[in-house]
What we know:
This protein is an alpha+beta fold. The protein has one domain (3-437): FAD/NAD(P)-binding domain (3-Layer(bba) Sandwich). 32% of the residues lie in helices and 25% in strands. It contains twelve helices and 22 strands. The chain has helices spanning 16-28, 68-87, 107-120, 132-138, 164-176, 222-229, 302-309, 313-324, 326-337, 343-352, 410-425, 431-437, and strands at 3-12, 33-37, 95-97, 100-105, 128-130, 150-155, 159-162, 181-185, 190-195, 201-205, 209-217, 236-243, 246-248, 256-259, 271-274, 282-285, 289-290, 364-366, 372-379, 384-386, 390-394, 397-401. The strands form five sheets. Strands 1, 2, 8, 9, 10, 11, 21 and 22 form an eight-stranded mixed β-sheet that branches. Strands 5-6-4-14 form a four-stranded mixed β-sheet. A hairpin with a 7-residue loop joins strand 15 (271-274) and strand 16. The radius of gyration is 22 Å and the shape is globular. Bound molecules: flavin-adenine dinucleotide.
Amino acid sequence: MNINKLFDTAIIGGGVAGASLLFTLSRYTDMKNIILFEKYDELAQLNSNPKANSQTLHVGDIETNYTFDKSIKVKKDSSLVANYIYNFNGIDDFGFIRDKMILAVGEKEIKQLKERYEEFLPLYPYLELWDEDFLSEYEPKLMEERKEPIMAIGVRGQITTVDYKKLSESFAQQALDTDKNIQLHYNEEVTMIVENNDGTFTLHTNNSNFNAKTVVVNAGAYSLLFAQSMGYGEAYAILPIGGSFFFTKEKLLNTKVYTMQNPKLPFAAIHADPDCTQSWNTRFGPTAFALPKLERYHRLHLKDLLRALHLGKAVTKVYMNLFKDKTIRRYIFKNFLEEIPVMGKKIFIRDARKIIPSLHVKDIKFAEGYGGMRPQIIDRVNKELLMGEAKIEESGIIFNMTPSPGATTSLAIALKDAHTICKYLGVAFDEEKYHVEIETRQE
Ligand SMILES: Cc1cc2nc3c(=O)[nH]c(=O)nc-3n(C[C@H](O)[C@H](O)[C@H](O)COP(=O)(O)OP(=O)(O)OC[C@H]3O[C@@H](n4cnc5c(N)ncnc54)[C@H](O)[C@@H]3O)c2cc1C
């Protein structure tokens, strides 16, 4: 058996979560040897790919599914990625300053929007209230054939759009540019993690074995499977929720347009996003539907899926509770129908018309090859669906599951893990350098 040298940290998963940790550890700690394993041939092939997500930097200013407290946290966490984009030459490469808005349709939503504006203005002083006169000049498609009154909270001059794959590549390049021993192993799948008697870990891959003093698993839904294979995280199960998109045949909007959240629904309402990899063509979505897969557009591993689902009394109770609610039941059914060819477009268009009322079925096409899987966590003990990220921390090993807005908050999650690992290994973290380069925006 070929046991390679002992790494300080091994990272499993080359999405934006893994890449941001690689960057943070290599640049701001005294660690000398770090290895990252990615089972596909490039970084960010799954949820961190621009085809899989909405490319949004979630700041909490227009996300009406966030409470005030959640917005305070997301604002702080997202600022790390925004600062990185500014300070590491990312503007117009992987981070984009584009306008965005949250659109209220009808008197009831307009009232809520105005209340939200007053409440959130102290936190985001740049928010603007946009009325119909302004909107008909600024985004005329929002007004065409519109019957109900509308109003928006708008944002100009901020980073709103990120290509998280390019961001991951930038993180990896910065790590490789240090004088440390940084190893990136592509096409190398970790198949098993074994904790040794001396507290180190052996990682078995499809090619070899590697030893590490600490391990961080940033492998999407597979993070939980790794944890459970080692006897941790038994309280959790995964509900895999797919998300698909529709493109318009021509570019219709210049602005990201989000819609007001129905507070009863667990997932964010659909929005329209100019796609930074498709000449800013308009992409609507994402939908939200239960899909029996852990990775979109990849082979189904039934055994893994069944292990992740943990179908049993507690999980069934969570499903039943979701189905009990009429609004959620309808929502689940509608989202399922949206995946059916031809019929799907006809159903989806009704939601999309909330943004562009003049939209016709012939104007949109299913975005084939786009979309991802949200590994939503079910807490089997409290029998509830958790909406945010989940972390399992054990001695020397961390497992992260990062549904939305996990790409936005990737550096914040990495910072927390870096502190934990440094403490565990007794290694220094250069707080001052981090503060200057990541917590501060250099003009
Ligand atoms: C439809 C949709 C829209 C979204 N929109 C947004 C958005 O606009 N803004 C936002 O901030 N977030 C958004 N998200 C969430 C965001 O995409 C994720 O939070 C983020 O990409 C998670 O990054 P990750 O690195 O944890 O996971 P991933 O990007 O999925 O990376 C996990 C990596 O681990 C690798 N891996 C798995 N198992 C192994 C193994 N055994 N060995 C080696 N490698 C392995 C995989 O190949 C993969 O590359 C969206 C998600 C979806 C599904």
